From TrEMBL:
Gene3D superfamilies attached to this UniProt entry: 3.30.70.270, PAS domain (3.30.450.20)
One Gene Ontology term of the molecular function aspect: diguanylate cyclase activity
Domain GGDEF: 181-317
NCBIfam families: GGDEF (TIGR00254)
Top-level taxonomic group: Bacteria
Native species: Deefgea piscis
InterPro entries cross-referenced by the UniProt entry: Diguanylate_Cyclase, GGDEF_dom, Nucleotide_cyclase, PAS-like_dom_sf, Rev_trsase/Diguanyl_cyclase
GO biological process: cell adhesion involved in single-species biofilm formation; negative regulation of bacterial-type flagellum-dependent cell motility
Reaction(s) the record says it catalyses: 2 GTP = 3',3'-c-di-GMP + 2 diphosphate
A single Gene Ontology CC term: plasma membrane
EC number in record: 2.7.7.65
Record's protein name: diguanylate cyclase
Pfam families registered for this protein in UniProt: GGDEF (PF00990)
């Protein structure tokens, strides 16, 4: 339905649209653009008419927008450029931005070929401001990461917690069965920690736990090795694809890492904070259970404590 007012109405609609509209002629020159785009680009409304797109918007040179325009004009093909891959191709800023510093607009762009009556090919570019949804998405991602941290990180030491460790143990146990690799576990316990707390106070005790966790974590070099806080003053280390000999070498390095802290312990025969370590290794199979490995490491730890602490014991000795 058209009446006499139709062209005028179309024009004011074009200018009232809450999205950017840009029409290029067959040579890729700007034929028309709407008020939304004038405002968002902060440019003079007439100055750009007749200019090639990449002269008017130099930031588009060699971008996917330029390629998509070529495809529309030469091959009659439409393109959709989502904000995931092309966050902000045009140099545009938020129109309803309350911030003092103008915020670069995140854009979703649709490029469509337009064939006219005289057979000249035109190209329609529609630009949508998706900044709000990009920001929302970022916030959601940050919250998800935070929730993940809360669920799997120990609050005091910042290293993974027991829940994380248990999930990893089940995962690594299955992997070791598939790959027929040995899997080792170290159970680590701080020596005379009750006395430490009693002598120096709980706060010092917490700091000591934090320092030891940091030292143990730093001493592990392979990205696949996992340390977690297992309980109060107990840590556990999972060493995938590691036989007993390797497991003992690492346990020795961990003993040294804690000794090298030289953290004074007023009520220990060693005079500094030390740990005891129980080592266990298994080549997992479908008939065995991962919990047996933990029990063996626990028993080895018990023997390390019995034999004077500040040392390692393995489940075979
Ligand atoms: N400061 C502090 N102390 C903790 C924390 N978790 C556990 N503990 C303390 O660690 C101590 C562990 O004591 P025990 O299990 O008797 O072991 P121990 O004194 O280290 O003796 P051995 O293990 O035999 O060398 C207890 O006093 C707990 O209160 C914590 O998060 N912070």
């Amino acid at each position: 339905m058209m009446n006499n007012h139709a062209p005028l109405l179309l024009f004011s609609t074009f200018d009232a649209l809450e999205l950017g509209v840009l029409i290029l002629n067959g040579k890729g020159e700007i034929a028309l653009w709407n008020r939304w785009l004038v405002k968002a680009s902060g440019r003079n409304s007439d100055g750009l008419i007749g200019l090639p797109l990449s002269i008017a918007f130099p930031e588009l040179k060699n971008t996917r927008v330029e390629q998509a325009v070529k495809l529309a004009i030469e091959k009659d093909q439409s393109s959709f450029l989502s904000q995931c891959l092309n966050r902000a191709p045009f140099n545009l800023f938020r129109l309803h931005n309350n911030d003092e510093v103008p915020l670069r607009m995140q854009q979703q762009i649709q490029i469509t070929p337009l064939r006219q009556f005289d057979n000249e090919q035109f190209c329609l570019i529609q630009i949508q401001d998706v900044t709000a949804s990009v920001i929302r998405e970022q916030i959601l991602q940050e919250r998800a990461a935070e929730l993940h941290r809360f669920a799997y990180q120990d609050g005091l030491t910042g290293i993974p917690n027991r829940r994380y460790y248990e999930e990893k143990l089940a995962e690594e146990w299955r992997r070791a069965i598939r790959q027929k690799h040995p899997l080792s576990v170290l159970m680590i316990d701080i020596d005379f920690f009750k006395r430490y707390n009693d002598q120096l106070g709980h706060q010092q005790g917490d700091t000591c736990l934090q320092e030891i966790a940091k030292a143990l974590q730093a001493a592990l070099r392979r990205p696949t090795d996992i340390i977690a806080r297992y309980g109060g003053e107990e840590f556990i280390v999972l060493l995938p694809a590691t036989p007993m000999a390797g497991c003992i070498t690492i346990a020795e390095q961990l003993l040294d890492a804690v000794r090298e802290l030289e953290r004074p312990h007023p009520d220990s025969p060693h005079h500094i904070a030390t740990v005891s370590i129980g080592c266990a290794t298994s080549t997992p199979n479908r008939d065995a259970e991962a919990s047996v490995l933990i029990q063996e490491a626990d028993l080895a730890l018990y023997f390390a404590k019995q034999h004077g602490r500040n040392q390692l014991r393995d489940s075979q000795s």
